Amino acid sequence: MHSVRRRWAAALLLVPLLTGCFAARDGSPYDAGAGAGGGRLRVAMAFPPAERFSPYGADATLLSRLGVTEGLTRLDGNGGAVPALAESWTRESGGGWVFTLREARFQDGTEVTPAAVAGALTHATHADPSPAALTGVRLTAEAVGERRVRVTTATADSALPLRLSSPSLAILAPKAYRTTAGAGAAGTDESGADTSGTAEPRSDTADGKAAVDPAGTATGPFTLARTSGATRATLHRFDDYWGGLAHASGLDVRFIADGTARTNALRSGEVDMAEAVPVSQAATLDQPTVREVPTARTTALFLNTRSGPFADPAVRAAAREAVDASALAEGVYEGHADTGRGLFGPALTWAAGERPRPSGRPAAKRAANTALTLATYDNRPELPEVAQVLQQQLRKAGFSVKLEVREYSRLEGDALAGKFDAVVAARNTMLDTGDPVSYLADDFTCDGGYNLARVCDKAVDRAVAEAGSRADDAARHRAALAAQTAVLRTDGVVPLVHQRIIHGVGASVRGVILDPYERTLVGTGTRR
């Protein structure tokens, strides 16, 4: 059985479409405006830490969004890999790449050395479950000079610099991997008591694999100082950050899963910023506080292709024909989304204009009161409403639909195990690696680790493998689009909408990073 990994749907836009945006010191686009800065920022986040701030699961993106962690590379506005902790790199013969490190320090004061970097990447390769960015990849890392690290994969990987931009491959100090019970700030209060609210203590696991603590051991402009379970976190400015001193002296973070409550906190002045404002709440905010970012986040209907009614391709075809995605874009999302036309949305420049037309699909079979369970999660407030509309559309086509809504962390394991007939989920196609081929391999191949549709199709596997063999970016993108068509031909996934993300930003706040990948939100230029 594939390892279960929590992944949050996130976003991508290769060319930001907002006006008044320019490059921050780290190269990310941020909201224009002047401001003296210096004070603490109060931030409301949509997703609470699910794994005690482990860098290897869902919390990896949370850490990078709050400016805590960094990798060797990062993604630029065109979807390419550009320097972060590595200032340059070269490709060797075979599967080797050599990365030259910039001068930087960890938040515990120690130097970012080749040995430390190699150790961090090695720890990631041994993590269980494995980070999504390493799905299907055997990676080794070694120090090869005063400032150089060699990263090698078992087979040639043209996407390695993109892969190393993943938040789940953040570089932490050696101290992070020697966590013992009660150590570190994450998951503890000021006294060191465990306040995570989970059953297991923050200590070495039963199988001897140590927990990883990013508190005070990362390299970003803000250091995680203290948490209160899954409700609050305190971050302080890291004054020795290689990218320059952050304007804000720290962050006071609240995790508010309910979208209306999150928006109300901004409107009442309790917080300075609120991420992921529900579309139903956007109109309640003053227009100057609304920041909308077009993305390639795709919300889709995933049909269980291995068991239940949708194991029959003709029944899957009937479900696909029953869906009216345009009603979702204009209704549920109130125009803050584009009608789904593939796995890769129009925000991706290389996919813009592409409308896949899969051929060879089986004829639809009349549903005839076929019973099924449709599941989704409520962390993203639009998804339950999407599921309700789909329930009505499927019923009109003859299906008998039971709807189940849970919090995401309580849904994912059952969804991946095939315990539902269909799942509505939002997925950022570029979050894990920035590479479309890696996304397709993870989500739709027989060995994929996040295969909600449980697709296992030889034609899909061949198309994805062909795309993975292409080193040239343009050729790789063309092959990825061809593989997309093979995936859609299975009817295991029905694209619904390509979303836009709405952030609420207080009038006095400047420098919020409008990152279309949703890997960053707060940076050195963020202030009030």
From TrEMBL:
GO terms for cellular component: ATP-binding cassette (ABC) transporter complex; periplasmic space. Residues 182-195 have a biased composition (Low complexity). It comes from the Bacteria. One of its GO terms (molecular function) is peptide transmembrane transporter activity. It comes from Streptomyces melanosporofaciens. Pfam families: SBP_bac_5. This is Peptide/nickel transport system substrate-binding protein. SUPFAM superfamilies: Periplasmic binding protein-like II (SSF53850). Residues 82-450 form the Solute-binding protein family domain. GO terms for biological process: peptide transport. Residues 182-223 are annotated as: Disordered. Residues 1-23 form the signal peptide. Keywords: Signal. The keyword NADP does not apply.
